[in-house]
């Protein structure tokens, strides 16, 4: 097996349980209400929760005659708050196998974290679950419209993490096709973790490895 200078992890669906669709949908509905839209169409809620693009966001806001910046600020605020509430209530938590990461310092030089979630949400997760010491660098995105252009599969934040770590060969661990594509665009090998929420997902891009748990990731590095 290839020896890696660094291993970088996704957050949602890899380290912590992913946010529930209903939670994100309700947060988005609250954001619409905050900017004066009391009856947002379900298809528009689905579009935002499903990963709206910059162009799609502007089209959506035009349909309601909304200022895109104001709506997106409301959406990001309520989305983040809904996530923090679930973490604090224990309704959303860290996966048990994150304990496998504590031994990675013996198997690789450094570890990082790159997520499509808000950077401030990632900071909360690392603090709340006492994971800070496991990572040498981490990136989420700022709560801006333009940050949507930098989400995976764009490798922007993976490239930044690799530069921080000074890594020439690295492995990215994720739970979605966009994670696999982003890794390959960043010239990284990829691990697809088949958690319960993605167990039956069909990928059009093959990951370098497929595993069931983070213990399997540690085992790969130990080969």
Automatic annotation (TrEMBL):
* Name recorded for this polypeptide: Haloacid dehalogenase superfamily, subfamily IA, variant 1 with third motif having Dx(3-4)D or Dx(3-4)E
Q: Which GO terms describe its molecular function?
A: phosphoglycolate phosphatase activity
- Write the lineage as a comma-separated list: Archaea, Methanobacteriati, Methanobacteriota, Stenosarchaea group, Halobacteria
Top-rank lineage group of the source organism: Archaea
What the entry lists under NCBIfam families is as follows: HAD-SF-IA-v1
Which InterPro entries does this chain map to? HAD-like_hydrolase_sf, HAD-like_sf, HAD-SF_hydro_IA, HAD_2, HAD_sf
Record organism? Haladaptatus litoreus
The text of the family note is: Belongs to the HAD-like hydrolase superfamily.
One Gene Ontology term of the biological-process aspect is: DNA repair
